[in-house]
Amino acid sequence: MKVIKFGGSSLANSQQIKKVFQIVQADSDRRIVVVSAPGKRHSDDEKVTDLLIQLATSQIEGKYNEAVLEVILERYQEIYDELQLNSDVMNNIRQHFATLKESNLEPAYLMDAYKASGEDNNAKLIADYFTKEGLPAKYISPKEANLFVSDTPGNAQVLEEAYKELEYLQLEKDIIVFPGFFGVTKDGKVVTFSRGGSDITGSILANAVSAEEYENFTDVDAIFVASPKLVHKPIGIDVLSYTEMRELSYAGFSVFHTEALLPAIKKGIPVHVCNTNNPSAKGTYIMKGKVNSPSIISGIASSSGFVSVYIQKYLMNHEIGFLRKTLQLFEDEGVSVEHIPTGIDDATIIIRGEDATDEILDRIVHRLKVELNADEAHYERGLCLIMLVGEGMVSMVGTTARVASTLAREQINIELYNQGVSEVSMMFGIREEYEKRAIQALYDEFFGEEVEYEVVDK
Ligand code: ASP
């Protein structure tokens, strides 16, 4: 059996839900359908989850916003009408909001109860629609199925015992429509995962029922080898290892929270990323272990906004504990450190720009000079990190040289370079104003031929 998850854009309105129905119906192995809340219908639309957060906030602040409630109800009503449903689900939804309005839950739990209702209501509508269309479907809630999670509102973690509880879902005769994004605590409170968390629900269910595949339907044909925002029409990735995915998402690939896939991946269940709007596209498989990809590089990702804190001290390499003391300063200021490329007498500490204000950085630099007697210390914002990722790199000579000469041709200086021992990825730091040019050039270098081939083939 397959667990199939649809994101918000796949369920934004009745036309999208009709596509979803066709997809589920097309394969009898698709037994468990995990759904998000309705997403944006067009680029300046609002996601139902965002509206729910507004509504919850208004209630928590004591000025309940009826207008927002109306917009939310209209979204569901429109779906209900256009799917020509004839059930009491709309009454049920209205009743649910009336109950929430009177609720005296603590703010954090009230917020989560509202957020969760986005997927919960959608699941009810979708189950009714499937059944009406002749595909018997049953809405099952995380509460009924015991999807137990930690008592951490907005950031739930699945509890180990939930997997055993959920196992029975594989025995259901009807198609199961299961709302994503939330679970229940052991004492029955609704708590959501982090934003985008319906992926997590799908992954947990795939693990619990030992699915043969976890299909994750979104609105792109594949995970692309480079961001379509930076490269014109990049090619898609056929297969990606979990490690590669993890490395890529670190540097800005935003298709998934990679942690979301962990429950499925841990059990060796392949994750298949597909497009609701083009279900016959090949999509991308994400698998456990090493994958044999035809190219050395599986993907190129980049992320801007890093800060480099440069420290220089003569004979640094002889001074026992220097790095530890340096890191202590960052810890004192509550700043998380991302990378530490070192030289003989110097070290660069890379952090994310949003993690430290100029005031904090000035303090750190000052302490480096005064307390640690650094000969030189300064910081610079505006660093872009580029990751080239590929399991194939380990068996190839000369990849670094190709990257370096590509960037040299573009007159782009490499500010720093780092390669992990695993050789699954290499990281380059450049000034962020060159990001687009660098990524395009690297894409042409490593994937240029494939692009040409594709064009000829057409
Ligand atoms: N609806 C939730 C969000 O917007 C969860 C999800 O769609 O995965 O974050």
From TrEMBL:
Keywords from the UniProt entry: Amino-acid biosynthesis, ATP-binding, Diaminopimelate biosynthesis, Kinase, Lysine biosynthesis, Nucleotide-binding, Transferase
Boundaries of every ACT domain copy: 388-458
Catalytic activity: L-aspartate + ATP = 4-phospho-L-aspartate + ADP
Positions of ATP binding: K5, F6, G7, G8, T218, D219
Keyword field contains Cell division: no
CDD domains reported in the protein's UniProt record: ACT_AKiii-YclM-BS_1, ACT_AKiii-YclM-BS_2
Amino acids binding substrate: T49, E119
Record GO biological process: diaminopimelate biosynthetic process; homoserine biosynthetic process; lysine biosynthetic process via diaminopimelate; threonine biosynthetic process
Enzyme type, top EC level: transferase
Keyword Kinase annotated: yes
Listed pathway(s): Amino-acid biosynthesis; L-threonine biosynthesis; L-threonine from L-aspartate: step 1/5; Amino-acid biosynthesis; L-methionine biosynthesis via de novo pathway; L-homoserine from L-aspartate: step 1/3; Amino-acid biosynthesis; L-lysine biosynthesis via DAP pathway; (S)-tetrahydrodipicolinate from L-aspartate: step 1/4
Enzyme nomenclature, EC number: 2.7.2.4
GO MF annotation: an example: aspartate kinase activity
Cellular component terms per the entry's GO annotation: cytosol
Family per record: Belongs to the aspartokinase family.
Function: Catalyzes the phosphorylation of the beta-carboxyl group of aspartic acid with ATP to yield 4-phospho-L-aspartate, which is involved in the branched biosynthetic pathway leading to the biosynthesis of amino acids threonine, isoleucine and methionine.
Protein name: Aspartokinase
Organism whose genome encodes this protein: Granulicatella elegans ATCC 700633
